[in-house]
């Protein structure tokens, strides 16, 4: 940096430099006016203003004063170099393939290791095999959690523990979210980029499924590689798609393009279906708790020691979601089967020899009678609650339906009422949505435990879906209409 002669040597005060620079830089404008060609030496100059007749009538705010600038004086001033504005550093994004592989491997480890650890602990303490056998058994159980049938000497095992499936879907959801962040698609609102991330995760997960099937096949178990590949691809794409849509913000993009009655109907149907499953979980849990003595007796009959009993308990917990769906079908009316030619419903109970698991401690011994039929009101109440949330959501927009009334207080009555057409169409459309979801859950919760009498376990998907659609459509409509009438009254 250059220094002037009138400054102390070595002085590089940035404030003084900036002040001197500011005093030099001036805006100037050309002035059409006669003046001496050269100012007399030693004579000071001053600013001049053009007369009104000499101006080309510029606006008042455009008038500028001009000064004579002494080049020699400018040369003696200290100058600084002003840096240009730096561009923000470009963040290096991971390639899609690398991000998908890393997220998929991480999701695989977090879902497989707990299964292998539990089974390995039980086998090691019981002396049934080493780490290799535990890893093989854990891999077979992990494949079963994806719905892949396991061929055994007693027949196919195709009853998936849905609690493990829920864990798998959750980790795949997180994998899709992480991939969208890694490739820079977060909050982009792009549906194609979300689909691309989901397909990438699903493809990588398919490779994992094929590898797992090859490692498990041929050691007392039979695994179809093609079946494993299809299950892993579908589960991987659907699980990752949920996270990718959330990560990119494409959910809002899709919602804006969807007609209002479809948007509200889908959401209300999902709420109603999950409330019905929740009611099934509560009733099923109470039934098992009341039959706790029978459950303890079943566990003790295995005579496998502490580790074996812990393993049986954990297996029963893995099927807790299945049991919740079965009880939900029981509350809806169609009921469920626990073997060939068996049925468990409110008005009829026909059982053979059920599987000896602690969960059967909650099975009813016979028809519930007139008092037990009041349980049929639980799905109706769940649908009515979903109808109430629908009206609250329509009134308060995106506000939480559960807290809107409390937050709005007395001013809630001033909010405009939604149109009857939107309320009715959304309520009616919620029925098929809930019915479809309940049918899928009923299908996923069922399966076979061998090729004998336990080859048919679970509710009938078609009957469960049809009954759920009718119950939800009617109860949601009644709940929404009652909420509106009560508010007006």
From TrEMBL:
Residues 29-65 have a biased composition (Basic and acidic residues). The chain crosses the membrane at residues 96-122, 142-170, 191-212, 232-254, 266-290, 369-390, 420-444, 464-486. Residues 28-65 are annotated as: Disordered. The keyword Magnesium does not apply. Keywords: Membrane, Transmembrane, Transmembrane helix. It holds the Pfam family DUF6350. This is Uncharacterized protein. It comes from Actinoplanes italicus. The lineage of its organism: Bacteria, Bacillati, Actinomycetota, Actinomycetes, Micromonosporales.
